Amino acid sequence: MKEHLLKEKAFTYDVPRTVPNMAGYEFDDEKGYWVNQTSKQPCIEDPSFVAPRTKKADIETGEDRKGE
Amino acid sequence: MNKVEILIISDTMDFTTDYICLELQRRNASYLRINRDKFQDYRIVLGIGEPVLNITVNSKKYIADNQSLKAIYYRAPIYLHDTFKPNLSYDEQLYRSQWTAFLRNLVLFENAKWMNNPISTFKAENKMVQLKYARKIGLKCPRTLLLNSVEEVPLDKDANYIMKSLDTVLLKQNDKESFVYSTVVTGEELMTSRLTVAPLVIQEYLYPKVDLRVTVVEDKVFTVKIIKDGIGVEGDWRKEKENVDFIEIDLPEDIQKKCIQIVSHLGLSFGGIDLILNNETYYFIEVNPTGEWAWLVNKSGLKIDRAICDSLQVSI
């Protein structure tokens, strides 16, 4: 018998995975979102910020990564 | 003292929540985001009776009580999925278990509108329960079995099946982590695998198919089809996430209505539903009570953030 299929077919990768580089940004507790340290503009509206793109975006606590 | 009308429970690195806070700020709403990775920076006192939650963040005092608190946007786990975490200190273990329990206890705010209430999420996150509800309201579902043995199951060794985990699988060992996508397997592979160690879900293989993501916010429905080079993706589209397009479409009215119904019947106000379109038939795959949606705002311009804020701002 082979290994359990959930193990056999699992996609394996190295950890830690890429952590978001938040240099230049700060979390504003009052606003409840990240801002650019200089412009104070919301990080998610900054074109240079890699915003979440799919439900498997690594940096998100997404639906499959909640509970960590 | 700042009265909190909308309490948001999240994590600092959850950028999806940024969309909600930004939109609420633009609407001059009275909201507070607390992040479960920053509890140590807060000072929190929760009283029962007429429940009152006092929170101090950076010397600023907030109060959420039965009168002021209208809604809670809950983007946190209801239980911890990571089954293996070596070398956690006592403090870290205490932090993880007790703050998670604190979040669960917030369900004492029974007058607030929840998106979603963890009690409902607890039930709704179960795949087999979802399928039962979906069938009950008339959504077609792939033939599905939950099993740890195929001895008594008439499988065709040459046929394809979809294999998926019953719950998110994140296996960790040393410097490696493994994640299980929905995977196409053959009957033979199922017959020759040692399955007894853990149950899994096998489903009828539907192909050709187009994946649809249906985001339901109460009675609002946002749907995209997920295609690569103009056609559906075989297997789990998330393996192709960089190469797929998300195209907004309208669902047939009866399917749309059933998507709203299943979310509502599970006691949810939000759900990310996965459907498959196969030979002009819509199949229900699953609903994610904690589903992601921000990528759809970015990629497809869907106004899901606004719909969520609309919902949070409507008093119950």
Automatic annotation (TrEMBL), chain A:
Q: What is the lineage of its organism?
A: Bacteria, Bacillati, Bacillota, Clostridia, Peptostreptococcales
For this entry, the protein name equals: Uncharacterized protein
What organism, scientifically named, is this protein from? Alkaliphilus serpentinus
TrEMBL record, chain B:
Keyword ATP-binding attributed: yes
> Keywords in UniProt for this one?
ATP-binding, Nucleotide-binding
For this UniProt entry, the molecular function terms from Gene Ontology, in alphabetical order, are: ATP binding; metal ion binding; ribosomal S6-glutamic acid ligase activity
The UniProt entry's GO biological process terms, in alphabetical order, are: SOS response
Is Nucleotide-binding one of the keywords? yes
Per UniProt, residues of the ATP-grasp domain are 131-313
Q: Which Pfam families match?
A: RimK
Q: Please provide one cellular component term from the Gene Ontology annotations of this protein.
A: cytoplasm
Alphabetized PANTHER family for the sequence: BETA-CITRYLGLUTAMATE SYNTHASE B-RELATED, RIBOSOMAL PROTEIN S6 MODIFICATION PROTEIN
Q: What is this protein called?
A: ATP-grasp domain-containing protein
Q: Which species is this UniProt entry from?
A: Alkaliphilus serpentinus
